[in-house]
Design brief:
Number of helices of chain C: 5
CATH architecture of chain A: Orthogonal Bundle
Radius of gyration of chain C: 18 Å
Order of helices and strands of chain C: HHHHH
Number of strands of chain C: 0
Helix content of chain C: over 70%
Strand content of chain C: under 5%
Strand content of chain A: under 5%
Chains: A mainly alpha (121), B mainly alpha (177), C mainly alpha (140)
CATH class of chain A: Mainly Alpha
Structural class of chain C: mainly alpha
Oligomer: heterotrimer
Structural class of chain A: mainly alpha
Distance between the termini of chain C: 16 Å
Number of domains of chain C: 1
Radius of gyration of chain A: 20 Å
Largest sheet of chain A: none
Shape of chain A: elongated
Chain lengths: 121, 177, 140
């Protein structure tokens, strides 16, 4: 019974960890660079969840001060993640621009193919 | 909880999908689910950003890239077992670390005791702005946001340099030849 | 590149509302959800929508490339300038209380200026990203 309670209490963390691990797996296992970048952004979004979830208070409301409410969720993680999202898309675009240039130079976005063309292992 | 489970399913689909178009569209759906989850967590500002940035702009940019590259992923190679092993070990370590965290939604967790009460109490008398997130973002943590804006600026300049300058050079070379 | 009729008319109908919503999000960000980041992305989304349905040339008539590229650093300058204005008035960098004799009022104004800077940089950067990726795809 206690185990089930623990599981339910931490369910959001478990999903967050699953997303993180899936992103990590994609980054390591896949050679396609666009897929790698998407894996990286999944990893990144899981970090958003990891930050926001502890800030939530059950029974609380969004942190916009109003006399009608007493309990607010923690605003600090929201601030940190808000900017992180926009920066995330900017860096994703930078990565994709690099992928486009690599594609123009090598004619492929598969990592192994590029290694082969470079004469490496 | 259901939304979170849906997110996990979408991610499994992203991992197994080989057509990159499918992956991009699924990642748009993933972003919308993420935005819904964030609304449930009371993070309305963040949810709005995620819906517009994650599902909007990044999908557009990804599609713009797919227009320029091959959209079919090659078959995976031999690195998979190693990757799976690394991922599982990291996941197990993280789960082990998570078990000690306070339960979801408790009001007396450590995170709610330190700076947040100060913001919540002082933000209206000090800045006249009821939205705490905006006030903290632009005022209390103004340096941070200046830095973030500069990062966006730099990334934009970087993309322009990568995608525009070389094109001009290539054209010049063609003219010379 | 001619899009479907329904798509074109629907887009035309939507555009003013998207812009209005972006402005609402920007200037109502003090009281409700939103702020410079969100408004910037939404207004950039408007230009991107034009670009997708009516083609790049139309989008670049709405938001000329030189203007967009000028706006990218302009936003950062507005932000930093707000900070330096505080310094010139004898307070710390990014201390907004100088914008009014009553400190909270001044900080409210300062937040507005800063969010304006964020709006300018974010929206123009997103539009510039879109232009850069699309132009790469069409060799002249």
């Amino acid at each position: 019974m206690k185990a089930i309670q623990t599981f339910i209490d931490h369910y959001n963390y478990f999903i967050t960890i699953f997303l993180m691990v899936a992103g990590l797996y994609v980054v390591i296992a896949r050679g396609n660079m666009v897929k790698k970048l998407i894996g990286l952004s999944i990893f990144q979004t899981s970090v958003y969840l990891l930050y926001i979830a502890p800030g939530k208070i059950i029974g609380g409301t969004a942190p916009i001060i109003d006399p009608a409410f007493k309990v607010y969720s923690n605003p600090l993680p929201h601030v940190l993640i808000l900017t992180a999202i926009v920066v995330g898309v900017a860096t994703l675009a930078l990565g994709l621009a690099l992928v486009v240039r690599i594609n123009e130079a090598y004619g492929t976005i598969e990592e192994d193919e590029i290694f082969r063309q470079d004469g490496g292992k | 909880m259901i939304l979170l489970t849906l997110m996990a399913i979408v991610v499994i689909a992203i991992v197994t999908q080989r057509s990159l178009f499918g992956v991009v569209i699924l990642s748009g759906a993933y972003s919308f689910l993420m935005a819904s989850v964030l609304i449930v967590y009371d993070a309305v500002d963040v949810a709005m950003t995620e819906a517009s940035v994650g599902a909007g702009v990044s999908t557009v940019v990804l599609l713009g890239t797919l227009a320029l590259v091959k959209t079919r992923e090659a078959r995976a190679d031999a690195r998979q077992p190693l990757a799976l092993f690394v991922a599982l070990v990291v996941g197990a370590a993280l789960v082990w670390g998570t078990l000690q965290l306070p339960s979801f939604g408790t009001a007396d967790a450590v995170i709610h005791r330190h700076v947040a009460p100060y913001y919540l109490q002082n933000v209206v008398p000090q800045t006249n702005v009821p939205n705490v997130v905006t006030a903290v973002l632009a005022d209390y943590r103004g340096y941070d946001t200046l830095g973030e804006t500069t990062v966006i600026f730099t990334a934009g300049i970087g993309v322009m340099l990568l995608l525009r300058g070389a094109w001009r050079r290539a054209q010049r070379n063609r003219k010379d030849a | 590149m001619k899009a479907d009729l329904i798509l074109r008319i629907g887009t035309k109908l939507l555009l003013p509302f998207i812009l209005l919503f972006a402005l609402y999000v920007q200037f109502h960000g003090d009281y409700g959800a939103g702020g410079g980041f969100q408004a910037g992305v939404i207004s950039a989304g408007m230009v991107i929508l034009i670009g997708i349905t009516f083609g790049l040339e139309t989008a670049q008539r709405v938001a000329p490339k030189t203007l967009v590229e000028f706006m990218v650093p302009l936003g950062v300058l507005i932000y930093a300038g707000t900070g330096i204005a505080g310094m010139l008035a004898g307070k710390n960098f990014l201390d907004y209380s100088v914008f009014s004799s009553f400190a909270p009022k001044g900080r409210e104004r300062g937040i507005l200026f800063v969010e304006l800077g964020v709006l300018v940089t974010v929206s123009s950067t997103m539009i510039a990203l879109f232009y850069a990726f699309v132009e790469r795809g069409r060799p002249q």
